Amino acid sequence: HETARTRNVQGSLADRDVLAQAIGDRVDCVYHLATLPGRGAELDYEAGRSANLDGMITLLEELRQRSPGCRIVHASSVSVYGTPVPDHVDDETLPLPAMSYAAHKLVGEILINDYTRRNFVDGLSLRLSGIVARPPGSAVHASAFFNDVFHAAREHRDMVMPLGADITTWMMSRRRCIENLWHAGTIEPDRLPRRRNWALPALLVRVGGLIDVLAQRFGPDVRDRIRLRPDPQLEAIFHQPRLHADMAEALGFKADSSLAELVDNVFSTDES
Question: Which end of the chain is more exposed for a tag (fewer CB within 10 A), N or C?
Fold first, then answer.
């Protein structure tokens, strides 16, 4: 819905007329969150390319012409590192996308760096980890079970987690993600390095530990209702080491400080 402070424009990001309506004469900051994520982009290549790559190119061109120098914050993804994830991930880890979605995100990062170098925009690409919790049952996210586990625990429903208890993975609460996105839009340009793409700090979550914290919050039956049935293929995709995000931390970006805080942030966001 629209309010005195908001205006909704619906349409394709790759449609210049739609972007012209959204941008108008001038914008100061753009948050580019639109995407067709992993599984969806693999199942429909044309739709994925349109949403993730063509839309990015069209948006950057419209900003170059209509709002030169404006801040753009691009929600990229740690999926650019590929699968399996390297044993050590830091700011120097080379990306090796293993799906079209990740390849498109990486191309978007390169374009933002180049458009920033030329002073067409003032851009940042933030490589986001698994953001929890989205609405349950998303068919286009291969990682949907990471979100479903929070809903299942709260609603005392049965579900299967396709990972073992000792699998570790990167997570960030939606609340912390929003805070980091807002921070990205407010950093003074003279604080930013030439390189404009980094992984954001994320909490390394052990699956068994997550279930323990959910059981403490919603009752011991959570341990019986959430059954672990490891899938080796999914474990190879989602098992991740500690994430070293030194560049982003130096700029003031933050992870959830603990598993208990992450769970609190998940449910405080849902209830607010």
Answer: N
